[in-house]
Amino acid sequence: MRPSRSSNHPTSSRSGSEYAQQAPKARQANDVRESDDRIVPANSGNSEGGKAVKLSRDSRSTLFTLSGEIAVIKRLERISQRAESHSEEKFNNLLTLITLDMLHMAFSRLKSDKSPGIDGQSVGDYGANLEENLQGLLQRLHRGSYRPKPSLRRDIPKENGKTRPLGMACVEDKIVQRTLVMILERIYEVDFYANSYGYRPGKSCHQALGELER
Which of 7, 67, 103, 150 is deepest in the core (most CB within 10 A)? Predict the structure, then answer.
């Protein structure tokens, strides 16, 4: 990875909203259900290039439209371009970069059969009033009044008789986490070398081994 955006560099004087405007770049799921997939970049098997993989529509969801997905992709591309062309600057307020379409996309990727977090709200409960919930979440994110809730902890029995702890986040917190992953991928992808394979979208250890065998 190339030298990253060092804290020694002065913080950009531009606000997060200006970045967005000017850029030309998840519980013991009860005893029988599993937790949501970890909220980290997923490997897609695409070995070409070093940029974050394009987002694909979740075919199981009818809540997120194609036009909304296109808007998210364009937004993320602008963030990538900004990160690449202004490598010495910092994105000092990521929450202001979040849009309603991003929140919709993040929600559409949540699994509906998972146990709720500490607030007892399931994905279905949240989705019953989705637009109003997401609008309220977006307002709190932009005002800086959003506060994540504590994760609900459960100890899952293991075959050897021991247990493993599992933290179950609330639906709303999962949405925010997934949205921030989208943004952070785009900011830091431009700092990686093409031959960096660890924890990157579209990259895997198998590809790294294949590169060594050449």
Answer: 103
